[in-house]
């Protein structure tokens, strides 16, 4: 039998989504609502999609990126390639069925790393641009890999590989923030998608700085070799077929150029030491908030969210639950916790703050700018949303991450006009 598309009043959007797309199940027993909820959420989380429904009638942009054809529309802007055959509009959405992406990535063989080892970089700590380079690299590590040393090392190596390659700029900040002045076209997504509006915990930021310092002092990560590109297993961008897949770290796949362009002899560019100020880092990095000669943060202290509009607090209303969460991992358990907390409620919101950085936000001090997890369910409007702070949780699909573009859902109470 096929699962009916007629849904009980107030049924979960996740349940409706699964019901509408479920295959025929001959001789199968009917699924209960509770079974569908758990199955649907696990499925949605496992394929790493942001559960944001589209409300075209209300004038909202399509947030739920799983369209009627079952394909994921993921705005991924890859680095430039050297082959004319790969040339295309870099801003064009890449549509791919997730399961097909997983299959395509799994059947693509790994190419041996070979004898080429990454080239170490040593930056003089007394040089004029060292602190700016340090924090540019640390920002890439914390926002791209979260608070995970192994993942951070892989990202750091990609940044350094690019620095040494003639296809990219030759300073840390210019590599990391290449294209960040555009809404699309940035090489590292966090630099142009609003992610920098989320402040990492002071402890996590210091750990990212320590990893960055290690790589600026000569550390290398042979695990990813001479990789200059990476993406998650859940997507299969067109350019990956033009490169050699050489490593996997977590659920990220790493690639290098094919032929001589990807051999060590090509990585002969030298570090130029020209580290520009990045104003986007001014609220997080003391080294980047003095471009005009004015220090806006006390020396020796880590800027906190009070330096930004994130100092606004959230008022707790009926049906809303404020909790502490433990950062790290992919945060899947929190989605299940949110769903279970909201069963049977017409309107429900679960908002979480990192247990390890309560001075920057907690249930007793609910700062909007430091929310680490959000689950919203509103049966009146059909809204069902789950979002994570990707500086704390490893969610490789950007649409699952809290950002300036979707942070308005934190204050959502059922009025779609205010959420648009």
Task: Considering the chains and any ligands shown, give keywords for the structure.
single chain, disordered N terminus, alpha+beta, 9 strands, three-stranded antiparallel beta sheet, four-stranded mixed beta sheet
Notes on the protein architecture:
Helix 1 crosses helix 2 and helix 4 crosses helix 5. Helix content is 24%, strand content 11%. With 420 residues, it is an alpha+beta fold.
Q: How far apart, in Å, are the first and last alpha carbons?
A: 39 Å
Strand order within the widest sheet? 6-7-8-9
The proportion of strand residues reads 5-15%
Estimate the helix proportion, in percent. 10-25%
Order of helices and strands: HHEEHHHHHEEEEHEEEH
What assembly state would you assign to the polypeptide chains in this entry?
single chain
pLDDT average, as an integer? 74
In short:
Helix content is 24%, strand content 11%. The protein is α+β, with helices and mostly antiparallel strands and 420 residues long. The strands form three sheets. The protein has a four-stranded mixed β-sheet, with helices on one face.
Which helices and strands occur, and which strands form pairs?
Elements: H1 13-21, H2 33-46, E1 72-74, E2 94-96, H3 98-107, H4 130-145, H5 149-164, H6 172-176, H7 202-216, E3 229-232, E4 244-249, E5 252-256, E6 320-325, H8 332-342, E7 347-354, E8 373-378, E9 383-388, H9 416-419
Parallel strand pairs: 6-7
Antiparallel strand pairs: 1-2, 3-5, 4-5, 7-8, 8-9
Helix pairs in contact: 1-2, 2-8, 4-5, 4-7, 5-7
